[in-house]
Design brief:
The complex is a heterotrimer of chains A (about 475), B (about 130) and C (about 450). Chain B has about 130 residues and is an alpha+beta fold. Chain B is about 20% helix and about 35% strand. Chain B has one domain (about 10-105): OB fold (Dihydrolipoamide Acetyltransferase, E2P), CATH 2.40.50.100. Chain C has three domains: about 10-60, no CATH class; about 85-340, Type I PLP-dependent aspartate aminotransferase-like (Major domain) (Aspartate Aminotransferase, domain 2, 3-Layer(aba) Sandwich); about 345-435, Aspartate Aminotransferase, domain 1 (Alpha-Beta Complex), CATH 3.90.1150.10. The chains are: A alpha/beta (about 475), B alpha+beta (about 130), C alpha/beta (about 450). At the A-C interface, α1, α2, α3, α4 and α5 of A face α1, α2, α3, α4 and α5 of C.
């Protein structure tokens, strides 16, 4: 067990000293504003801090440690040159309120990144401000709302989302003040267009759609869907979580989407940081450009500037201009790949997913077993029914084989779901090894189900008491 | 799975025990089993007025959350405070712990609910 | 240069294995008319060497706070970042990981977040802190919407001494229709506590107070505001500066129900505005309503201490349209930076840094006054204050000409920030430039 940093604290130990200072002034803070008791922070030497966080890193697992087929998260390799770039002092050490002439390089990068994203998605304008995918969704849905309101079309109170949608979609629509209406999936795992038709009315603001959807299936009727939504005056929102599956091949802007977000931390190779920071730019068609958050980056007479003059803007969604450090990495990534590299990445992401799907066939149920895009859903229903081994058990067993488990129990419309997204940056050998592990687990489920249910045994801890954690929450350390 | 006689049952898997004008509302054994380990009960607002079928609270398990509906219309008189600290009692003794007590507005609401026998058949059908 | 590892021969073999003729077959499900059917119009792929040169050139076109002393604050601060923070963040087990959904292989990150939550609780004197929000502005917006949610009221009073960007973000969130943000004009650079008290009614969900406020001033009316809002059963939301909490009374001691703020100062570079760190802390009573991720302590099957994401039933992936927030990805790595930073500077270090910032600000104030300039507001301040200047844009230009990144331009003033990185000599230069300009 790893001690907490607080438990390593030794009174008087320190890892920090201020530079000397020859300013005579004492403080002038009123007594009533002073803190009575010191904030309890660790007192640790530098070497102990370093060992502590080194140890914690060794008890973590990233893409650099191994295969990470976490569906819907696009855990591809994060190029090291991108990390280098983001840490350049010229990018990292500039203040957001410096006068524009001192940050021309940063503004140019944002301007160029926007241009590249426009080309990749077929949208007309972008904002880079949202800090994450869900933040982008909120921005996009607020833009849809502002558009309808501006047209005095004030009765559009409903937002449609598929039953296979990410949880962020309904949560976002609700946050933006919409009533959420669910559209069913058909037996092929796609939006049931008849159901959609029956739900459309002049009260519907729009439809939020992921394409390919969370089952990894391309919405083949997307043109028909767009027609149905547009005919009723609604707008179409593209959840870009799965854009890795189509980039370079097809574009949301050409499919009829009016607003789209991208996850730079999924599609464009920027790391996920153990939970963030991400970046969730929003692209819109020209007729929505006036509603984008301020400021937008513009180029005037060869110089780059921040333009706050958008009278119809929904306002700001972040204090400054977005997660610039993440933008630098995505910019470097797209520049490195170019058009051919982006297509190649997409093709290989789809290839790898289909390869695993084909190889698992017969060993695990595959509820929608046909050509998939960048990910697919396998299911442990057979194992569960015959041997009591669930998707959770399979996932935990994979840990013992050295892999990060896939996303489990999502999407909600598949039972015992295991959503597998290998990404393009895995070799065939690694995919084969993973498949062998999955097959071994399937065998174990038959021969020693109790072992599978007891996994993992090789991790630093065994399964944890999540119920106890939620019933009696301990959310901080107390001495 | 236990179904107790003498109670009224709703299709949302709540039971109602009637004492005079008061309706004690709880969660059935079937419901608690499907939810799994219950970790928190979001109690209804005291004095809140609700129509039958309205959401009056929520039941949380580790990986799921389920709305708590009231099978009868009325005013909330009390919540079961024991559940604040011991939500697990809903798993251990679903019929022994009510979640809320309502002052019934209309006894006719009870006519729309199921008997224990009807509810048993209803659960069999749901389980299929 | 791409990062696809399979040579084309292997790709061919994989396609053959699946019975596909070529790569196009992988996209047979996309209607032909929807396909791009051309190359994307992007520049030619770059080698790493070319990238390094190009990005280096682009970065070099920016003037950094390393080249020029920086007196800009206004929500983002140029504090010193210890080398340990930078080095530890390069551990790729941290930065290439996803959200720690699987506790057995994520104990390190989970423990680090648990420690971070503890540090934020201790700094703010609040009971609960989440794993992070996007930034200070969005954290404040979420705090306001949470206050509306739990009080079932809709009005939030915000003095105009709160960071205007935070206010704008809160207004954007308010377009959801469940909250109404009312701005209350301040007086002499601080909130007008009497005006706020008179506006509080039984529809007021919360009052927001930033301390030190946007102008760097201490909100001396805080106790009155706290009494007024709590007497009407509304919530006190405070936005605070984490560095200041080394010295200043924490929000928990002021009676705040929710405390939020910008944590960039804690070991995160300026990054031209992001990624930053929104921190979010609340009272015990609000624990199950807090947005975002929470790490809790528990035990594993062998009874060993373990950490896990907990109270997930609050979150969007479970509660969907009933979730109070849609946040999913947060700023975990920035929170990790903050935790490492606070471990390095430690209990005494944070106090000393706060004291140094304040001391330097006091020195600057005295020197500016000696040079004939006046404060815009006659208030006690922490590490930032506004000096009255007729033409702040011209003043900033003059400063830049002298190799100094000046302050944040206010109407008739320049907001100047002083971190422990500023030296007496740099402040003397600042004063000599500002003292030398024609100040009408």
């Amino acid at each position: 067990m790893s001690k907490l940093i607080f438990e390593k604290s030794v009174p008087g130990a320190r890892a920090f000293a201020l530079p000397s200072c020859n300013v005579p002034e004492p403080g002038e803070l009123p007594d009533s504003f002073l803190r009575q008791e010191d904030a309890l922070l660790p007192e640790v030497s530098e070497v102990e801090v370093v060992r502590h966080y080194t140890e914690l890193s060794q008890r973590s697992y990233g893409v650099d440690n191994g295969f990470y087929p976490l569906g819907s998260c696009t855990m591809k390799y994060n190029p090291k040159i991108d990390e280098w770039a983001a840490r350049l002092p010229g990018f990292a050490n500039i203040h957001p309120y410096q006068v524009e002439e001192t940050v021309q390089g940063a503004l140019e990068l944002m301007f160029d990144l926007e241009e590249m994203l426009r080309e990749i998605t077929g949208m007309d304008r972008f904002t880079l401000q949202p800090a994450a995918g869900a933040h982008g969704e909120m921005t996009g849905v607020m833009i849809i709302k502002a558009y309808h309101n501006h047209r005095q079309d004030l009765h559009r109170t409903k937002m449609i989302v598929p039953d296979s949608a990410h949880g962020t979609n309904p949560a976002t629509a609700h946050m933006a003040g919409f009533e959420v209406i669910e559209v069913k999936s058909n037996e092929r795992g796609l939006v049931d267009i008849d159901d959609l038709r029956s739900l459309m009315s002049d009260q519907v603001a729009g439809l939020m759609l992921t394409n390919p959807n969370t089952l990894g299936l391309f919405e083949e009727e997307i043109q028909g869907i767009a027609e149905v939504v547009h005919a009723a005056g609604g707008l179409l929102y593209y959840d870009g979580a799965n854009a890795n599956a189509i980039m370079g091949v097809a574009r949301p802007g050409d499919m009829g989407f009016d607003v789209c977000h991208l996850n730079l931390h999924k599609t464009f190779g920027t790391p996920h940081g153990g939970g963030g920071p991400g970046s969730g730019p929003i692209g819109v068609k020209a007729f929505l450009a006036d509603f984008l958050p301020v400021p937008v980056v513009v180029k005037r007479d060869g110089r780059f500037a921040l333009d706050y003059d958008l009278p119809l803007s929904i306002g700001k969604v972040q204090s400054f201009y977005g997660n610039f450090g993440v933008m630098v990495k995505a910019y470097a990534y797209i520049k490195a790949l170019g058009a051919s590299g982006i297509l190649e990445a997409c093709e290989n992401a789809v290839l790898n997913a289909n390869y695993i799907r084909t190889r698992l066939r017969g060993h695990y149920d595959i509820p929608y077993d046909r050509l998939c895009k960048h990910e697919f859903v396998a299911s442990a229903t057979k194992q569960k029914k015959e041997h009591g081994v669930s998707a959770l058990d399979v996932a935990k067993s994979l840990i013992d084989y050295g892999y990060h488990p896939p996303t489990i129990y999502f999407p909600l419309i598949a039972e015992e779901a295991m959503m597998i997204e290998p990404t393009e940056t895995e070799t065939r050998e690694r995919l084969d090894d993973f498949v062998e592990a999955m097959l071994a687990i399937a065998r174990d489920a038959v021969e020693h189900p109790e072992q599978v249910k007891d996994a993992p045994r090789k991790a630093v801890i065994r399964r944890v008491d999540e119920t106890g954690a939620a019933r009696n929450p301990v959310l901080k350390w107390t001495p | 799975m236990e179904i107790k006689d003498g109670l009224y049952y709703s299709e949302d898997h709540e039971w109602v025990r009637v004492e005079g004008d008061k309706a004690y509302i709880g969660l059935t054994d079937f419901a608690q089993e499907h939810l799994g380990d219950i970790v928190f009960v979001e109690a209804p607002d005291l004095d809140g007025q609700f129509e039958a079928g309205a959401v009056i609270g929520a039941i949380e398990s580790v990986k799921a959350v389920s709305d708590m509906h009231t099978p009868v219309s009325g005013k909330v008189l009390a919540a079961n405070e024991i559940l604040d600290d011991s939500p697990d009692l809903l798993n251990k003794d679903p019929y022994g712990q009510h979640i809320a007590v309502l002052e019934m507005a209309d006894r006719a609401d009870l006519d729309k609910l199921m008997s224990s026998a009807d509810y048993a058949a209803f659960c069999d059908k749901e389980a299929e | 240069m791409g990062y696809v590892p399979n040579p084309s021969r292997v790709v061919r073999e994989m396609l053959e294995f699946m019975g596909l003729q070529g790569r196009d077959d992988l996209f047979a499900d996309i209607p032909t008319g929807l396909k791009l059917n051309r190359d994307l119009n992007l520049e030619a792929p770059r080698s790493e060497q070319e990238l390094r040169q190009e990005l280096g050139r682009l970065a070099a076109r920016n003037t950094t706070v390393d080249d020029r002393p920086c007196f800009l604050g206004a929500g983002a601060y140029d504090h010193y970042i210890p080398a340990v923070v930078e080095q530890m963040l390069l551990r790729s087990e941290f930065y290439t990981a996803y959200t720690p959904y699987q506790p057995e292989i994520s104990q390190g990150i989970l423990q680090a977040i648990f420690e971070y939550q503890t540090m934020i609780c201790n700094l703010t004197a609040m009971a609960v802190a989440n794993a992070s929000m996007y930034d200070g502005g969005s954290a404040l917006a979420e705090a306001c919407s949470l206050a509306c949610d739990v009080t079932r009221r809709s009005r939030v009073l915000v003095p105009d001494t709160v960071n205007p960007s935070y206010l704008e973000v809160a207004r954007t969130y308010a377009a959801g229709g469940k909250m109404d943000v009312v701005v209350v004009p301040g007086k002499d650079g601080i909130a007008d506590s009497a005006a706020i008290a008179s506006l509080i009614d039984d529809q007021t969900a919360a009052v927001v107070v930033q301390n030190p406020n946007f102008y760097g001033n201490l909100e001396t009316g805080l106790p009155a505001i706290e009494r007024a809002i709590h007497s009407r059963k509304g919530l006190l939301v405070m936005a605070v500066d984490p560095i200041s909490l080394g010295l200043l009374k924490p929000p928990g001691s002021w009676g705040a129900d929710i405390a939020v703020g910008e944590g960039q100062s804690l070991g995160n570079p300026l990054n031209f505005g992001g990624p930053y760190l929104g921190f979010f802390a609340a009272s015990e009573k609000l624990m199950r309503k807090v947005p975002g991720r929470l790490v809790g302590q528990t035990v594993d099957l062998d009874g060993r201490r373990a950490f896990v994401l907990t109270l997930q039933a609050r979150e969007q992936h479970i509660r969907r349209e009933k979730a109070s927030s849609n946040i999913c990805s947060n700023e975990a790595l920035c929170a990790l930076a903050a935790a490492i930073y606070l471990s390095v500077v430690g209990r005494d270090g944070l106090k000393e840094i706060a004291a140094r910032c304040h001391q330097l600000a006091c020195y600057a104030k005295n020197e500016l006054q000696r040079a004939g300039l006046n404060l815009k507001y006659p208030q006690p301040f922490f590490r930032e204050f506004a000096v009255a200047i007729g033409d702040p844009t011209a003043a900033n230009r003059a400063l830049l000409d002298q190799g100094i990144i000046g302050g944040y331009e206010l109407d008739g003033g320049l907001l100047l920030a002083f971190t422990e990185k500023r030296s007496r000599a740099e402040i003397d230069r600042l004063v000599s430039v500002l003292g030398g300009i024609d100040n009408e």
